[in-house]
Specification:
The complex is a heterotrimer of chains A (319), B (154) and C (498).
Chain A: H1 2-8, E1 29-33, H2 40-56, E2 60-64, H3 71-78, E3 86-91, H4 93-100, E4 112-122, E5 124-128, H5 135-144, E6 150-153, H6 159-171, E7 176-179, H7 183-191, E8 197-200, H8 202-210, E9 214-219, E10 245-253, H9 258-271, H10 275-283, E11 287-288, H11 293-314
Parallel strand pairs in A: 1-2, 1-3, 6-7, 6-8
Antiparallel strand pairs in A: 3-10, 4-10, 4-11, 5-8, 5-9
Helix pairs in contact in A: 2-9, 4-11, 6-11
Chain B: H1 11-14, H2 16-32, H3 47-69, H4 81-101, H5 103-115, H6 123-144
Chain C: H1 2-12, H2 15-33, H3 39-46, H4 55-80, H5 89-100, H6 104-138, H7 142-156, H8 164-178, E1 181-182, E2 189-190, H9 203-220, H10 234-237, H11 241-263, H12 269-282, H13 295-311, H14 313-319, H15 325-336, H16 345-348, H17 350-381, H18 386-405, H19 408-426, H20 432-454, H21 461-464, H22 466-494
Antiparallel strand pairs in C: 1-2
Helix pairs in contact in C: 1-17, 2-4, 2-17, 3-4, 3-15, 4-5, 4-6, 4-13, 4-15, 4-17, 5-6, 5-13, 6-11, 6-13, 6-14, 6-17, 7-20, 7-22, 8-20, 9-18, 9-19, 9-20, 11-12, 11-13, 12-13, 18-19
Classes of the chains: A alpha/beta (319), B mainly alpha (154), C mainly alpha (498).
Keywords (chain B): Membrane, Transmembrane, Transmembrane helix
Transmembrane segments (chain B): 16-35, 47-72, 84-114, 126-145
Domain DUF1468 (chain B): 16-150
């Protein structure tokens, strides 16, 4: 109610929900995610929830069930009815978790219906301005004096952390990886000079880079990122073949009927075609774009294989 | 002060609180014993748990000693079983039901059950009051705040 | 600075923006009163609203919810021993005894006024010293945080009212509870009996259980004398001149502590209020009065958490770095409006930057103006028989804790801590040090191990880094002072009483 009053107050927007002549959905839906209120996952859920709700004419509530790197929420969703009313916002961590956890109460692929990606985003490698000329200089320094380069990351087992480990594995450089509580804390440590590098998303890094505090040395995607065409890739410089792109997507419990999947996928791709939704997703550092369920599933399977190997080779404690 | 007996509590009674703390410390050590300890300069996840476990045990022993030696010890207050049982029951019922039947019925049950902690509670009063409280809770949490909790499941 | 602040004021003084500022602080105030439902829940629920508002207005309304909730948090603490926000746990220690002594009105007034002064000092520092504070904050690395926490633990091990040994044991128990969950440095699971515990015990569960639920268990079956003599005359609400004078320095000290801790990313209002209380008690001439409704012990942490709520915006606004989860949400709202927060915010968006800061100034005044008249209403709440009140409180705790992480486990844990807190008190153990250890313990472990990792096990960094060295010196001085004062106290008591 408070929400509606606030929206109505400036009378800027009249939301008219189209009444669709179809059976699904006929009541409120929800998007469950496994991260804290206010994190990126939560924000993306709310952006998509808002758009899907306008599209299908039923309210969408966002439910945060944080815990154990998102696996509490995945386990919960996997056990819910596949009626299309329970959706899950998945992130790249869904694929990481498959390799990181010993006993997941669910199967990361077979217990879910994959609907569509929402956006894909790379990570950027950043250092304090002027400290390193290029990513090549960093790797040279690391190879010359093993253990001299400290990389701050946003938590053990995060995609950021594993990307750093993968960079070390592929270049043979011996980095020290230091965990912080989230990307913002790692960024503070970089600014304060406690670490030499951070690898994180555009939202964490670009504000500092624009202000000239950080130099962005490289991007983790295989090809140059459209929003930052001047930033070289790791692939073309120090680590040929390097390709890390994380993603957000929507899924549901396994076994959602095909006609409902079609309605949901349609609503998602319609939402992602709206300029304002695209703008908000892009503001969060991602390249917005829908996919088919099969494409999403293939992406998840591919990344499970990659991350499981990194976790194995880097000797990261499985839990 | 509230006890009727004039004499001081026995040694066993005096060492209850320290004893429970000692038990907590020992359980902690037992569970954490397998965690990798590492060294002071390169601590494993088991280092601090072990230190804290020993610290709790040491302090528990010190507390037992000081309680037993103390010339006069205030009597431990009597446990209010009625309050403990019904308040606990109310909260547990809420926890058990909220994911299954939704917010409104679980609020009603939690209020109704916990009201019996008061020995003056009469069934009819409880029924009326719990209904009113549930209505208020519904207005506050679901209508005004729009918390993402279903009112009734399905 | 002042010119720019005036520019900000001109932004806020537009009627529509003023109204949003009012709505923000008002919602925050209400949310703060509700146990368990914190600013994070409220802000994330309102986040979609900001899609329809511009960046400045969004920031003003969301920020208002945050610092408004700091005001509201103290109300339930004072009246019902129910910390509405984690940072108001300390408010319970002096506020609730005052309320039981039929002086709830006075306690509420002192809390509101201290909050106001703390908030205003925080705003002043934000206006005048945002950049220097940022530079200091950036010099706090892992070694500094580790030493700061040690200093804090030393200072605060006296926080309980009972014996030293018992209160120190409870600090350690709190540290033990803080160990539950995935180890931050290695990801190793410690004491994780079920997957819901992988991220640790929630502070909300612990605080609600130890304080709120345990108090209900204690009183539910008791016939509390319904207070006929509850006074709500304004004369009894306003402190006497003597009382007011005794509050000047505690409020200033509390504001200083709060402003400092607020500006450090990752510490926040809860730690600020704990530290302010501990220091106030440590250096008080009458430490024995603490815990019995001592006004300076109420005023210092109240001013501290509100000052911290304001200076918490320093790293957020000057660097674009969120110091805690609430700040991350507020930054999220900025990003959604197409503004990338960073060091250039102040230059590129002066109207937003200064408008938001000016809204804090105006918001604090609004909060004081709505709080003082409301005291009457809150005190009337105590006229409701406890038998009618407690079932409703139980439900509010349940819903609040549940909604926090949509977790049934958290609700059950809250009950478990309630029973624990009830039994503890029966055996003369205080709950407040448990929370202190719980908040500070992980901060110490993580930062110490991080320092060892970065500096490859070199202990001398604690002494060679200047700020760290200062903190070590303070800790040593504190220990020496404590030993010296206990020796001199013993000498006094050795003399036979005449």
């Amino acid at each position: 109610m408070i929400k509606n009053l606030l929206v109505a107050l400036p009378l800027t927007l009249a939301l008219a929900a189209p009444s669709l002549a179809q059976e699904f959905p006929d009541r409120a839906m929800r998007i469950v995610h496994g991260f804290g209120a206010g994190g990126n996952a939560d924000t993306v859920s709310r952006i998509m929830g808002e758009a899907i709700s306008t599209n299908l004419g039923e309210p969408v509530v966002v439910e945060s069930r944080p815990g154990a790197g998102g696996t509490v929420a995945s386990g919960y969703v996997a056990g819910e009815d596949p009626d299309g009313y329970t959706l899950q916002l998945m992130v790249g961590g869904h694929a990481v978790a498959a390799g990181l956890y010993n006993e997941l109460p669910y199967d990361s692929v077979n217990d879910f219906t994959f609907l569509s990606t929402i956006g894909q985003f790379p990570f950027f490698v950043a250092a304090r301005a002027g400290e390193y000329e290029s990513i090549d200089a960093v790797i040279e320094a690391a190879l010359a004096d093993p253990g001299s380069i400290v990389i701050g990351h946003s938590g053990v087992g995060s995609t950021q952390h594993l990307t750093g480990e993968l960079l070390g594995l592929q270049t043979g450089a011996d980095f020290i990886h230091v965990p912080y509580k989230g990307g913002a804390a790692a960024s503070t440590a970089l600014m304060g000079g406690e670490v030499n590098l951070i690898i994180d998303t555009g939202t964490v890094i670009s504000g500092q880079a624009e202000a000239g505090v950080y130099d962005i040395l490289a991007v983790t995607s295989a090809d140059r990122w459209p929003d930052a065409p001047d930033v070289p890739t790791l692939n073309e410089t120090v680590a040929p073949g390097f390709d890390v792109v994380s993603w957000t997507a929507l899924g549901a419990p396994a076994g959602v009927p095909d006609d409902i999947v079609a309605i949901l996928s349609g609503a998602i791709s319609d939402a992602l075609a709206q300029p304002d939704v695209r703008e908000r997703i892009a503001a969060l550092g991602a390249n917005p774009g829908a996919s088919t369920g099969a494409e999403l599933q293939a992406l998840v399977e591919r990344q499970i294989a990659v991350w499981s190997e990194v976790i194995e080779t880097a000797g990261i404690e499985r839990r | 002060m509230q006890g009727t007996e004039q004499d001081q509590p026995s040694i066993a009674k005096r060492s209850v609180s320290g004893g429970v703390l000692l038990a907590i410390g020992l359980i902690m050590l037992a569970v954490a014993w397998e965690y990798p300890v590492g060294r002071l300069t390169q601590m494993g996840p088991g280092f601090i748990p072990r230190v804290i476990g020993f610290a709790i045990c040491a302090m528990a022993i010190a507390i037992i000693v000081s309680d037993v030696m103390a010339p006069a010890l205030p009597q431990a207050r009597k446990i209010q079983w009625r309050g403990l049982v019904f308040v606990s029951a109310g909260i547990l019922i809420f926890a058990a039901f909220v994911d299954v039947v939704g917010l409104v019925p679980s609020m009603f049950l939690a209020v109704a059950v916990s009201m019996f902690a008061d020995d003056d509670a009469r069934p009819l009063n409880v029924l009326i009051y719990a209904s009113l409280a549930t209505l208020g809770g519904w207005l506050l949490f679901l209508v005004a705040l729009e918390l993402p909790i279903p009112a009734f499941w399905r | 600075m002042i010119d720019q602040f005036l520019l900000g004021l001109s932004v806020v003084m537009q009627p529509q923006i003023l109204m949003y500022a009012f709505i923000g602080v008002f919602i925050g105030q209400l949310i703060g009163v509700l146990p368990g439902i914190g600013a994070i829940t409220a802000i994330s629920l309102l986040l979609p609203v900001t899609f329809y508002l511009d960046a400045t207005t969004s920031m003003i309304i969301l920020a208002g919810i945050y610092y408004g909730s700091q005001y509201g948090g103290s109300i339930a603490s004072i009246l019902l021993n129910l910390p509405g926000t984690p940072s108001s746990v300390v408010t319970c220690l002096e506020g609730y005894p005052l309320s039981q002594d039929n002086r709830a009105g006075l306690a509420l007034f002192v809390a509101a006024f201290s909050s106001f002064v703390g908030g205003m000092i925080g705003v002043a520092i934000l206006v005048l010293a945002a950049i220097p504070m940022t530079l200091i904050a950036l010099r706090f690395g892992a070694p500094e945080y580790a030493m700061l926490v040690i200093l804090g633990l030393l200072a605060a091990s006296l926080i309980g009212t009972g014996s030293q040994l018992r209160s120190f044991a409870m600090v350690v128990l709190g540290i033990a509870l803080g160990l539950v969950g995935a180890d931050q440095t290695t990801g190793y699971y410690r004491f994780v009996a079920m997957p819901e515990l992988a991220d640790g015990i929630s502070l909300v569960s612990l605080a609600m259980g130890l304080f709120g639920v345990s108090e209900i268990i204690r009183n539910a079956a008791n016939k509390r004398p319904s207070g006929p003599a509850l006074s709500i005359r304004m004369r009894d609400v306003i402190p006497t001149r003597k009382q007011a004078r005794s509050l000047v320095f505690p409020i200033l000290r509390g504001s200083g502590f709060g402003s400092f801790f607020g500006a450090l990313p990752g510490t926040g209002a809860a730690i600020a209020s704990f530290m302010a209380y501990a220091m106030e008690k440590r250096f008080s001439r009458t430490p024995e009065k603490f815990g019995t409704g001592h006004l300076p012990g109420l005023a210092a942490p109240e001013s501290a958490n509100n000052a911290a709520a304001q200076t918490g915006f320093i790293p957020t606004l000057t660097l674009g770095i969120p110091g805690d989860a609430v700040m991350a949400l507020i930054i999220g709202a900025l990003i959604l409006n197409g503004i990338i927060p960073g060091p250039r915010l102040m230059v590129d968006q002066p109207e937003l930057f200064w408008g938001v800061i000016a809204s804090f100034f105006v918001g604090n005044i609004i909060l004081l103006l709505i709080n003082v008249p409301l005291i009457r209403l809150w005190v009337l709440l105590l006229r409701i028989p406890y038998q009618k009140l407690y079932p409703v409180i139980i439900v509010m705790i349940c819903v609040g804790v549940y909604s926090h992480r949509t977790s049934v486990t958290d609700v059950v844990l809250t009950l478990a801590f309630g029973v624990l807190g009830y039994l503890m008190k029966n055996y003369r153990f205080e709950p407040a040090p448990v929370l202190l250890g719980f908040v500070l313990g992980p901060l110490l472990e993580d930062n110490f191990r991080r320092a060892m990792l970065i500096y490859r096990g070199d202990f001398t960094i604690f002494l060679t880094r200047p700020i760290s060295a200062i903190l070590v010196t303070c800790s040593v001085a504190l220990v020496v002072f404590a030993i010296w004062s206990s020796i001199s106290a013993r000498r006094k008591t050795v003399r036979p009483p005449s």
